[in-house]
Amino acid sequence: MKVIVMDNALEISKAASDIIIKQVNNKHGSVLGFATGASPVETYKRIIEAYERNEVSLKYITTFNLDEYVGLDRENVNSYFYFMKDNLFGKTDVDFSRVNFLSGTAENMEAECERYSQKIKESGGIDIQLLGIGTNGHIGFNEPGDKFADGPFAVKLTQSTIDSNKKYFEAVGDTMPEYALTMGIGDIMRSKKIILIATGESKAKAVKELVEGEVSPACPATILKLHADVTVFLDKESAALLSKDR
Ligand code: F6R
Questions:
Q1: Atom 4 of ligand 1 has which residue's CA nearest to it?
Q2: pLDDT at residue 244, as a whole number
Q3: Lower Cβ count inside 10 Å, N or C end of the chain?
């Protein structure tokens, strides 16, 4: 696992977007795994800017997102589909017929998870998976527990995740769903390359566990140590608790 500490979120977004843009330009029909939340927003902005300068086209990429809230349809401003449309897809030439999402409104969750799993396999696998990390060490919505999940599944969100994300729902007078569908750890680990972004003091504890802790489902992100190609981008605040002699 390569750990890179940068001055700020802007520097991180430049480095992360460069890797993604290079991937898209080097392989026609690249398969990209995207994350939502605050961590990747600046990176998406840099990709949009590169698109506007004609330095990259997203027309032929296939995309998979990590997760979606149960009960929210694509038009809901707090759905992760809406987030991606608003923060990246709708501002570039992404072909929505190649955008893949877990459906939060699927009648049969199990069948929906199986469908998504098949789609990932049929795509040939994810070339680059972008990740954030929860304050509790989750990746995707793989919450701390006693085992790692392989494929996509329905998850009951922890209080920590609800506390971190409920502000987005409260802002529009809604209550945050308690369940989500998420890619499993296996899906994430099968990605050829992984980039994780963590910024801010609130992530420092989870980052310390990720970098210096043992691999354990109690901090799901620690599994990334077993992957051959992971780059972790940190700002000074999120790296603050790391041992100096690392
Ligand atoms: C989002 C996701 C989550 C977030 C994590 C960090 O699709 O899967 O794991 O990456 O909760 O969220 P932010 O970036 O908002 O701090």
A1: 132
A2: 79
A3: C
**Residue 201 DSSP one-character state:** G
Secondary structure (3-state) at 35? coil
Which amino acid belongs to residue 2? K
How far does residue 93's CA lie from ligand 1's centre (Å)?
A: 24
Count CB atoms within 10 A of the CB of residue 193.
Answer: 18
Q: What was the pLDDT predicted at 210? A: 98
Instruction: State the Cα angle at 33 between 142 and 134, rounded to 5°.
Output: 35
DSSP at 104: T
Confidence (pTM): 0.98
What's the CA-to-centroid distance between 239 and ligand 1, angstroms?
Answer: 17
133/127 Cα distance (integer angstroms) = 19
Average pLDDT over residues 145-155: 98
The tens digit of pLDDT for each residue in 71-128 reads 999 999 999 999 999 999 999 999 999 999 999 999 999 999 999 999 999 999 999 9
> Does residue 138 have an active-site annotation?
yes
User: Is 67 one of the catalytic residues?
Assistant: yes
Q: Considering the chain, what percentage of its residues have pLDDT values greater than 70?
A: 100
Is the separation of the CB atoms in 171 and 208 below 8 Å? no
- CA–CA dist 162, 182 (Å, integer): 15
According to DSSP, the β-strands at 31-34 and 128-131 are parallel
CA distances from 21 to 17, 128, 132 (A): 6, 11, 19
Q: What does the block give as tokens for 13?
A: 């977004």
